[in-house]
Design brief:
The chain has 472 residues and is mainly α. It folds into two domains: 197 residues, Growth Hormone, Chain: A (Up-down Bundle); 214 residues, MFS general substrate transporter like domains (Growth Hormone, Chain: A, Up-down Bundle), CATH 1.20.1250.20. Helix 5 packs across helix 7 and helix 18 packs across helix 21. The longest helix has 52 residues. The radius of gyration is 23 Å and the shape is globular. The protein starts with 8 loop residues before the first helix and ends in a 13-residue tail after the last helix.
Amino acid sequence: MTSTAQPTMAEGRKAKPDHLGHVIFITAAAAMGGFLFGYDSSVINGAVEAIRDRYHVGSAGLAQVIAIALIGCAVGAATAGRIADRIGRIRVMQIAALLFTVSAVGSALPFAIWDLALWRVVGGFGIGMASVIGPAYIAEVAPPAYRGRLASFQQAAIVIGIAVSQLVNWGVLNLAGGDQRGEIAGLEAWQWMLGVMVVPAVVYGLLSFAIPESPRFLISVGRHDKAKEVLSEVEGRAVDLDLRVEEIELAMRSEHKSTFKDLLGGKGGFLPIVWIGIGLSVFQQLVGINVAFYYSSTLWQSVGIDPSSSFFYSFTTSIINILGTVIAMLFVDRIGRRPLALIGSAGMAVALALEAWAFSAKTASGALPATEGIVALIAAHFFVLFFALSWGVVVWVFLGEMFPNKIRAAALGVAASAQWIANWAITATFPSLSEWNLSGTYVIYMIFALLSIPFVLKFVKETKGKALEEMG
């Protein structure tokens, strides 16, 4: 007797989930971690000058307070996966939400500069954990037919978080009469900027109680009935749940747990493909993109723009960042990863050259002449646009696709660590470099943008349209 009640596995996967709206809610809730990642990374932009003034700290010390969160990021990212395998994805989200909340309160109410730095590290732990657990969870709960589109929620949430943080900073500054140290209800404006993050952090924590645990984790701890219940919710009732559980179990048993030793064997220690991944990660940061998100308000004020306008320009560049990310998401599978990277590198190099030229005209009073000021503003927006439509998205796509299966997890971890270190290097050095020579600093970033072009042409292979199993 032949049954027609159950569709084939392929048909089940292609079928529209019974509760697609529920799946989108689950994905959006998990992506709130990405929102907080973006928000917490860039909210400090509005507080830099106020912190410098309040605690009488020099450029080098200020840079360490800003950059120290990245140490927490690296540790959080390195440990999140293992913790999630032991206690579950949802618990890790809740821990991250708690860290974000505590960091927001502590950063808003510091009693010394070292105290503020400590809370920045705590927030960094949260950022690192959110940067890992969000994409992992979404990949595990998303129906296969919708996985690519749902995975993009994380990157979209990050750039929206950056934009919202700049909008909040601008709004708070206006409430304080344009003074970053102006008082609002007994606290200085910059303290409110850092403290407002409590709201999305609490929302993230509450949402984590409303979404199910990952089926993959449930199966790993023997809770097969609960896993089937979740699979039914996210993949539809038409899917053969027993077969899906067996499929996941088989995949988990056959997975190769890559280690650091698997990456060794080439010149300079690592395999060539690992060095290429490290190179992509490092170039992504050495063009100076995070200067735009950590220091843009300070930068514009240093060339004579008033605080309110400088905060507004930080917000408009974050909107451009969203636009560029959308462009990348639309074209990364159409024209390929390498062409987008090359277009982005060329565009960034031109924009950085224009910024360097404009800042070279800085007068004795610190202001820019009118023409150079307009060029600097336009070039800064174009720089962020070209980064967002290329390296901001493409590097993560490359890193997820370029490594052979047997080393993918370990290689991705090393490349991501290199990215955090390069991020820290740029963040920690910009205040001192800009005091030395602001125009020269942008020339350095331009050189890295130019060097990324031959690097991509010579070493980076296109991964568009290739199965992961083809990577070698």
